[in-house]
Specification:
Number of helices: 28
Largest sheet: 8 strands, mixed
Radius of gyration: 38 Å
Distance between the termini: 105 Å
Oligomer: single chain
Structural class: alpha+beta
Amino acid sequence: MMAWHYWVRLAGLLLYLLDRTKALILESMLTETPSVKDQIVSLLERAFCFGDQTWQGEIHELAGRFQGQLHDPELEILIECSFLYWKQKYEDCYSLISSYFGSDMEKLTSRYRALIVMIFFKSCFRLHKYQEGLEILDTALKAFRDISMVEKMSLLWSKGNLLVAIRQLSDALVCLRDAENLATDLGIESVIAMINVDMAVVVLETGDYARAVLMYESSLAVLSEDTRYEQVCILIRLNIASAYPQLRRDEDALSMYRNLLEYPAVTTDPRYNIPVHVNMAISHKRLGQYQESQKEYEIVLDLAGVAKNIELQLRAHLGLADLYQKINDPEQARANATQAVYLSELLNIDSLRYQANASLAGIEYEEGDRLIGIDRLAGSFQWMVDNSNALNALEYGGILVGWCSGENRFEDAFRFQKICAQIRSSMYAREVERTVELTAVRSRLDHERESIRMRDEERNRILNAVLPPSIAERLMNGERHIADRLPEVTIMFADIVGFTKMSSSMAAGDVVLLLEDLFKGMDEICSVFGCERLKTIGDSYMAICGASEPFPDHVERMCKAALTIGSNGNKLPLDHTRLRIGIHTGPVIAGVMNGIRLSFDVWGDTVNVAARMEGHSSPGKVVCSQAVVDAMAKDDGVTFEKTKPLDIKGKGRIETYMLLNT
């Protein structure tokens, strides 16, 4: 057995090594502090400029590791503000920025000033300080001359959302479209999709529910590919389902709600699952499915009770009171309306209190307590009038006119009718303003739709001009990476003999016109036989057959095209004896290379051998490989004359043949 002091010394050594390791790790981390600061700033931009709060956890995990070591008070304040915002302490976030940086954004000199503005604005927005938020954004957009494209995009995006909130829809659409264009230039697909969601809200306001649903669905297709946007996708699906009833698609709405309930994020979060069940109850009721509606309302009561959400319990009781009135169960209707009134008193929200009282008033009137019902509903009516809740006021006022007339209280009926007429007049004036605004928005949307259509047509024209039609169509259908292995195609190369010497004695414009006319003529000949130009390089022309369309006779087609090009009667602007042509057939890899310019190309030995055939050819002649001769063995329309073999590096000697017209 080892002596006890040995174990003590060993333990001491281990503790020393552990402490030293920690010190080395900390030292290594501290030497990386500048890059860590950049990482934190980048994450803050993602959270506030890209509207992606899912990064908040990473922000505070990273900042926590270097707490007290950043030596950047401004950044530390922003981290603290982001934490307060994340925890929905918007007032504290607003106060911290105001006290540290001041509220005059124009005087900001911080390197983080665009980020400061974004966090400050978002706090204002959450606190409904819309005017202050608008002034902050306008100041930043005018005064900050050196902001990046990302920062400008986020400022415009934020301004667009704020203008939607204050109902300036036409201006909102301009800002959102400008933000979308910047996001497109930056290539940030997730941001483009989220801005598109915000524009769909504007489209909904114009009453174009079908288009709004399409916009939501296109954004959903992008965002659903990333699990970080799960909550955003849930909200989009809720918006789609909420729009369906306006399109008389209640069954589709119910189907969407059922799908949402399959998401654990929905079933475990009362913020989502309770509204889903409320909307399902409403849709069932609208479809006359009263039993199913009742079950959904009862689920809402259970969930809201567990979540201790009095407001949603109240709304469920109001829905049940209305439901029981529809199925003629006055006892249950009164019980639910009474409970709604009781909960509204606990909640102390006047709008809900008077809605609950209006529900109870209807039941009292139906049960025979008509004077009590009239007085109760009159109280709700007056509150709605005083608080500019025009729709509810008109609904309650219309009911009161009927009730009072039935009780011979004509003076009261006239008074209620007069107030309703004044509300309608005021609503009409506001509706005229709203119509003008919506007309401007619709006009802008129509103009943008036409611009997009013309842009798409121009894009399609350009794509079809530079790419084979089948490839252009695949790109337009959204295929991003095109790469195919084609088992057998035929390649032709043709070029002008002595072109360099010839062009040196010609004017530049004449050279270009000559090549333009020559290649156009060759294009026309190729198209007759189902072949197509792949590209031109200098005076060299490359064509392919069997790629876009899998012609079984692609070799024959290319041979006939080559013979036509190399004949006396080809009507080309250059004598056929100035052209030499080579053909080979075999497998290739074909694909589209993305970048600044799109290009469709083919690669493989087949291309190399075809180029060597052309190089081995003579003026006015067409040289082919053994593979071409074998493919044409049963064709009596052409003949071949054997020529000198060609030595190709890596392949050895291969036989070559002159293609002759019979």
